[in-house]
Amino acid sequence: MTAPDADGGDPADAGSVVEAVFDAVAETAPEIRAALPGRRVKSGTENASGESVMAGDLYADELLGDAITAVDGVGSFVSEEREAAVDAGGAVGEGAYAVAIDPLDGSSNLRSNNAMGTVVGVYDAPLPATGRDLVAAGYVLYGPITTMVVADDDGVREEVVEAGADGSVSRSVVEDNLRLPDDPLVYGFGGRVPDWTDEFTAYAREIEDELKLRYGGAMVGDVNQVLTYGGIFAYPALVDAPDGKLRLSFEANPIAYIVERAGGAATDGEVDILDVEPEGVHDRVPLYVGNEELVERLKAALD
Ligand code: AHM
Ligand code: MG
To answer: Which residues bind Mg(2+) 1 (predicted)?
Structure first.
């Protein structure tokens, strides 16, 4: 895929823009991580989804916004924490790409010092778009180790990201063809059990007998366990919130893209997440993602 770059200069292919975006994300990750200890409090503002924003969310959003809009070939930057897209120069779909981020996924884990992440989707169409318009997606996991998982047409790789004493950032690939294990081991389901639908509750009861519960309250951390051990993660449709909690553009689409490239599947309960047609950039969607066999059973259970 070739296209003129955002400034109308030399053609930039999707691969080089994607590489530059994830270079920028990796460069920013240690800085975000280092800034978290002093930013475990509420910022006093609400985001476009009406949720309370933590100081860490705002800081991560600012750093990533600066780093990603500076990448040649990025025409638009869209964040879970911002009402509107930021124009980064260049027409998306005509040579430039739209980058969507959830700057600090699972930021309610700041107070309790548990895992969090940054989620990134690179789309070749203006948002809102479907997940079929993704050319790459990835996430950073701020766990005991900082890792970055990146998926594109070629597959999924996992890197360790480390900051040196002089501030330089080094990256080492630990897995260059990440695949979901065939024998699933873990599951993690969000939302309060009394708020689940009867159909989902019945499915969960079956899964509880087969797999081990691993739920940490940050989608990136919970999905990373599914990628590592095999299994299923869900933030389901709730009785009073039929669209669940997670956002299609910033969370569900990138995660679905990554898991599908790793050999798994993702659905909203009826259709593939990547086929869900959005109405707005901040739309929510139920997300069920993991080993294909478990996702197929889920779809049958909800039918
Ligand atoms: P956030 O992006 O505002 O942090 O919200 C998304 C997070 C997901 O990481 C996680 O799966 C879910 O919210 C957990 O929600 P809850 O705390 O309601 O279990
Ligand atoms: Mg999130």
So the answer is: 80, 102, 104
